[in-house]
Design goal:
Layout: H1 9-22, H2 35-42, H3 46-59, E1 62-65, E2 69-72, H4 90-111, H5 114-132, H6 136-153, H7 157-176, H8 180-186, H9 188-199, H10 203-215
C-alpha cells in the first residue's frame, strides 16, 4: 500500500484558506488580508503564508496584483458562453456535477464505442501513474480528462459541454481539497470498476460506481 506524504504547513494553511473561500467568507474579487494579518490568523511565519498563497495562485483561487495585493478569484466566465457560477460554495456546484455525471455515465454505457473504451483505459493508466508518482496536478488533470471522455461518450454534446465547463470551475478546488491524494488513491479501484461497467454496457453498475466515487468529494 502506498504511504502518502504528510502535508507541509503551507499546504495545510492553503487548505484552511480554501475552506474559508468555499464557505463564502470572502467574496469574489475581494482582497485577501495582508501577510501580517494572515500570519497572526494562522500562527505561522511569513514564508509559510507566501508559499500558501503561491499554491492558491497556481490553483486559480487567488490572483496577486503587483502593488495592490492578493485577490479572491472564484467566479468564472466561461469561453463563448454566458454561463456564470453564482456564489462560491463548492458543495452546491459539486451537487450539480453529481446530477450531470449520473446521466452522462449511464448514457456512456449505452453509446460508447470501442475507441472510447480504449481511450478511457489509456487515461486510467495515466491516472494511476500520477497517483504512484504523488503528483497532485497530474492526478487532477488525468481524473478530469477521464470523466470528460466518459461524458463525450454519452453522445449528448450539450450535456458534455456543460459538464466540461462545470469541472473547469471545480478543478482548483479538487487540487487544494484536503486529503485529495488519499481520495484519488482510494477511488482508483472504483474507477476501474466504473470503466468495466461502461464496457459491459451496464447502466445500473455504472450508477453504483459513480455514486460511490462522487461520495468521496461530498
Amino acid at each position: 500500500m502506498k504511504i502518502l506524504q504528510r502535508k507541509t504547513m503551507a499546504e495545510e494553511v492553503a487548505v484552511l484558506i480554501t475552506e474559508e473561500i468555499r464557505h463564502g467568507q470572502y467574496r469574489n474579487r475581494e482582497k485577501l488580508p495582508n501577510e501580517t494579518e494572515l500570519m497572526k490568523a494562522f500562527g505561522v511565519g511569513r514564508s509559510t503564508i507566501r508559499e500558501s498563497t503561491r499554491l492558491l495562485n497556481n490553483a486559480g483561487l487567488l490572483r496577486s496584483r503587483q502593488g495592490l495585493g492578493t485577490f479572491i478569484e472564484t467566479q468564472k466566465f466561461y469561453r463563448g458562453t454566458d454561463l456564470k457560477m453564482v456564489g462560491t460554495d463548492f458543495r452546491e456546484v459539486h451537487e450539480l456535477r453529481e446530477l450531470l455525471e449520473g446521466k452522462l455515465t449511464a448514457k456512456a454505457a449505452i453509446n460508447r464505442t470501442t475507441e472510447d473504451i480504449l481511450r478511457m483505459k489509456e487515461i486510467l493508466g495515466k491516472r494511476q501513474h500520477a497517483i504512484q508518482s504523488d503528483n497532485a496536478e497530474k492526478c487532477v488533470a488525468a481524473d478530469l480528462e477521464l470523466h470528460h471522455v466518459i461524458a463525450a461518450a454519452s453522445g449528448n454534446k450539450v450535456l458534455a459541454e456543460l459538464y466540461s465547463l462545470l469541472t473547469s470551475y471545480l478543478a482548483p478546488f479538487y487540487l487544494i481539497l484536503e486529503d485529495h491524494q488519499a481520495i484519488f488513491s482510494e477511488t482508483h479501484r472504483d474507477h476501474e470498476l466504473l470503466l468495466d461497467s461502461i464496457e459491459r454496457s451496464d447502466p445500473e453498475g455504472v450508477g453504483r460506481n459513480i455514486e460511490k466515487i462522487l461520495s468521496f468529494f461530498s
